[in-house]
User: What shape does this take?
Amino acid sequence: MVKQGQSLQLKQVQRLSPLQIQTIKLIELPRLELEQRIQKEIEENPVLDEVVDDTENEDGAPKKVSLNEYTNDDTPSYKLYINNQGKDLKPQYNTFQVKESFHQSLENQLGFCRLDARRHQIALFMIGMIGNDGYLRRDMESLVDDISFKTGIETTEDELEEILEIIQGFEPAGVGARDLRECLLLQLDVLSESEPVNNARAILEDCFDEFTKKHYNKIINRLGIDEEQLKAAIAEIRHLNPMPGGQIDDSYSEQAQQIVPDFLLEIKDGELVLSLPKYSIPELRINKHYADMLNDKGGPKTRSEKEAVSFVKQKLDSARWFIEAIKQRQNTLQRTMEAILEFQHDYFLDGDETKLKPMVLKNIAEKTGFDISTVSRVVNSKYIQTHFGIFPLKYFFSEGLINSEGEEVSTREIKKILTTSIEEEDKRKPLTDEELVSVLKEKGYNVARRTVAKYREQLSIPIARLRKEL
Assistant: This one.
């Protein structure tokens, strides 16, 4: 018979405080999102007021108060007031611009075509199936089924081909193509006749596979042209747009995101000076109405009054945690960036990539005493403005290798040498990965061919055959 019993085990579980949770969340936010988060807190916490004019403090006007003035418990006296607004003007961020969208442009052009109502509806459906890059990815057989199912219109593949031909005559040239080859040919069709244009068309029609693989000698032999004629034809092709849909922005699409740096690095008298640009954070203080509620000497009497006081105290705690979390966020960012500057001091003096040392998150965690996860949160989505450009903090981290002198060097330094070597190579005979290994070895870096191939791919540099030029 099995005996049943109870046993008591003690387990120590580490729980994060509300302040720690708040701080972690704020550390992850880049500058613009932090400003939005603060504004959201102001809107959701009635205890917090945004200071508009701090010069008045008469009866009825909001006043600055501290938490210990209005609580009788053991809560620490963090002041519920923050003035982090510097003299810096709020940066002008990008605004939304309403433009004619890509699909709106196609639909407007369709309005000038003489189509009956039925064909007009089919054309609208097909335009809707064209991607933002300008391509029609759906095959005709599938479109026939889609149109029948969603519009109730019976059609055929031949009819769709006829309507697509009309759409392919719209601007921008190349729109409605099913693949790259068709896209480029559509653009050649609108150009004036010339020998280079005709040769370019012949290359795309008869030698497209050889063209993509840069087998130029095969193209010359098949078309019976010389090298100069081939160069002229390829020049025509290179002027064409492989993504015709990208010429027109979608309506309400935001402009390219403007980077607002979280750190500012300057050199003053030969020394690196780091600062955190003043955020557009409003001054926060307690709303006088709620402060007076807690300051009422008579104390709450009814149940509803007690519930109101409890609610206000809860919001006061929330405000305290929020403001203290902002302070801790600033301190964490400052200490982390200072550690990065110390580690990469020589690089930050002039921005020479060859001076970047191998650095991983653990190095900075050891310098600051923070967890690696905390350093990772600081580094993610944060930028620094230096005297030689704006960079994401991730840019300064890289693994290392040992050179022939036994010194550890950054992989970024090796990538820089690879990039320079490829930029300076003879494009008629580009350097293979094996030859790049020899180049690096001559400079004192013993790197395997597969490592060179990996770095080249990370740099988005194609293999030697695809870098070949005439």
The radius of gyration is 33 Å. DSSP finds 20 helices and eight strands in the chain.
